[in-house]
Amino acid sequence: MSVSELGPNDVVTAQPDTELGTVADRLASNNVGAAVVTEDDSPVGIVTDRDIALEVAQSDDVASTPAEDVMTGDPTTLEADAGPLEVSQAIEAENARRFPVVDDDGTLAGIVTLDDLVATIGEQLGNVADTIEAQSPDYSP
Fold first, then answer.
1. What is the CATH classification number for the domain harbouring 85?
2. Which residues are 79's β-sheet partners?
3. Between residues 64 and 134, which one has the greater pLDDT?
4. Which segment of 3-7, 22-26, 52-56 scores lowest on mean pLDDT?
5. At what angle do helices 84-94 and 114-135 cross, to 10 degrees?
6. Cβ neighbourhood burial of 105 (10 Å; 0-12, 13-18, 19+)
7. Which of 35, 51, 110, 134 could form a disulfide with 12 if both were Cys (CB 3.0 to 4.6 A apart)?
8. Phi then psi for 58, rounded to 5 degrees?
9. Residue 140 domain-assigned?
10. pLDDT at 140
11. How many distinct structural domains can be found in the chain?
12. For 34-49, what is each residue's pLDDT tens digit?
């Protein structure tokens, strides 16, 4: 299974000059916690709901603040054909929860999150449990 299969390919995006009010609306309407900031379809940053919330204490007009003022720039990306282990390694190395997925040209192709990894591991553990139960009929958890 590749990273591109773990997370959604339909990613909420914004431009560096997109106002945070617009970003917040996109996050809310898509029920997600982050938008990938792109230039020429390549990721240049990430804005999270937490970034927007923290800006409240810094700005009198949060809604008009451009995404580039609060985004985490130069995000670590994962290649679309990377494996799930690389997601785990990136989470540990970067202390981050979300990673843009890019194709061979560096173009945004999706996003993968800690939640995607945990859900996938949970599904796989369910499959393992089914196999154990099928092979060991007397086994009962």
1. 3.10.580.10
2. 102
3. 64
4. 3-7
5. 130
6. exposed
7. 35
8. -100, -20
9. no
10. 67
11. 1
12. 999 999 999 999 999 9
Q: What confidence tens digit (pLDDT) does each residue in 81-96 have?
A: 988 888 889 999 999 9
Predicted pLDDT at 8: 67
What residue numbers bound the domain in which 32 lies? 3-135
Q: Is residue 141 part of a domain?
A: no
Displacement of CA 33 from its chain's centroid (Å): 8
State the Cα angle at 59 between 70 and 39, rounded to 5°. Answer: 25
Per the DSSP assignment, residues forming a β-bridge with 38 are 43
Q: Are 2 and 82 in contact (CB under 8 A)?
A: yes
In a domain, 23, yes or no: yes
* Residue 75 confidence (pLDDT) above 80: yes
Q: For position 68, what pLDDT does the model report?
A: 97
Residue pair 74/45 in contact (Cβ under 8 Å)? The answer is yes
Beta pairing class for 98-102 and 34-39: unpaired
Q: Is residue 29 part of a domain?
A: yes
Distances (CA, A) of 56 to 9, 33, 63, 84, 127: 30, 17, 9, 35, 44
